[in-house]
TrEMBL record:
InterPro entries: Phage_CGC-2007_Cje0229. This is DUF1353 domain-containing protein. It comes from marine sediment metagenome.
């Protein structure tokens, strides 16, 4: 026996509303909702002398009720990929926005506002899912920041 289509949509809507309460540690995209919302596409310029990118237009990333503001002038290397792995994982790609947000959270403790390292890394993972980074690349990059990000996080606390 098949459930009426209206009932299925109602169940999906209820699950979407309850999802953050049912599993607060893992939030999924329900009913077409984004995991991370970005207020605009990044506008960047390359600073050759510093070998970094500069954010030219500010934007905000919103995740699980947290708003992380990326100011104009913020300098970033985008994804901090070791030279050895750059042939496998590109430094520039769909993951630009999540990488910029991750960078500011790691480098500037005052932007964290109660966000732990695990949460910053999860926001990076969810952000990559939002901008449709492929599953394998998304999880490889997430695994890398979980495994090696502790040193950068601790350095940012000083």
């Amino acid at each position: 026996m098949r459930a009426p289509l209206g009932l299925l949509f109602m169940v999906r809507a209820v699950l979407a509303a309850l999802a953050p309460r049912l599993r607060p540690d893992i939030q999924r995209s329900y009913a077409g909702m984004s995991l991370v919302t970005y207020t605009r596409e990044p506008v960047l310029s390359w600073r050759a002398k510093e070998r970094q990118w500069c954010v030219e237009v500010p934007f905000t990333a919103i995740w699980r009720g947290y708003a992380v503001k990326i100011p104009m002038g913020f300098r970033t290397d985008l994804a901090s990929i070791p030279q050895l792995f750059r042939s496998l994982i590109p430094q520039v790609g769909r993951h630009i926005q999540p990488a910029i947000v991750h960078d500011i959270l790691y480098r500037h403790p005052w932007t964290r506002a109660g966000i732990s390292r695990a949460m910053a890394d999860r926001m990076f993972l969810d952000g990559m899912e939002t901008v449709e980074v492929g599953w394998a690349l998304r999880w490889a990059m997430y695994g890398a920041v979980r495994a090696g990000g502790w040193a950068s996080w601790t350095k940012g606390e000083r």
